[in-house]
Specification:
Layout (H helix, E strand, L loop, with lengths): L19 H13 L8 E4 L8 H9 L2 E5 L2 H11 L27 H17 L1
Parallel strand pairs: 1-2
């Protein structure tokens, strides 16, 4: 689930939920390949400057596992247009501590390549 800031496609709500059927297909594929993952609430915000320390702590208390910038909008459009949509979000960097940790995400091409290939295989499986 993600927080929605734009209500052009769906009625206003604090949360929007991904399609459980699609989520189950994705997690089954990850399980088959023994790829570890975390399911949970995604905090979707449209700007890094909104990620204040207080707001990060509030979202953590609400159960948010990650922050990103697209999922709420993508889920809303999929629901509005009535098509299947799911996502795998790769946590490239870490903003959960006092200092930003890039985790060298820009240098981990092998992981990013494997993620793209995994997504390609998932699309074929649907």
């Amino acid at each position: 689930m993600s927080k929605v800031f734009s209500y052009k496609y769906i009625k206003p709500s604090r949360y929007i939920y991904s399609d459980r059927k699609i989520t189950d297909k994705i997690t089954s594929c990850l399980d088959e390949r023994k790829i570890p993952y975390i399911k949970g609430i995604t905090w979707t915000t449209d700007a890094m400057f909104r990620e204040t320390k207080a707001l990060v702590e509030q979202r953590k208390l609400e159960g948010a596992k990650i922050v990103e910038m697209e999922q709420a909008g993508c889920i809303a459009i999929a629901q509005y247009r009535n098509f299947d949509y799911g996502a795998i979000i790769y946590g490239g960097d870490d903003v959960s501590q006092d200092e930003w940790d890039s985790r060298s995400w820009d240098k981990r091409q092998g992981i990013r390549y494997n993620l793209v290939m995994l997504c390609r295989d998932l699309v074929k499986a649907f």
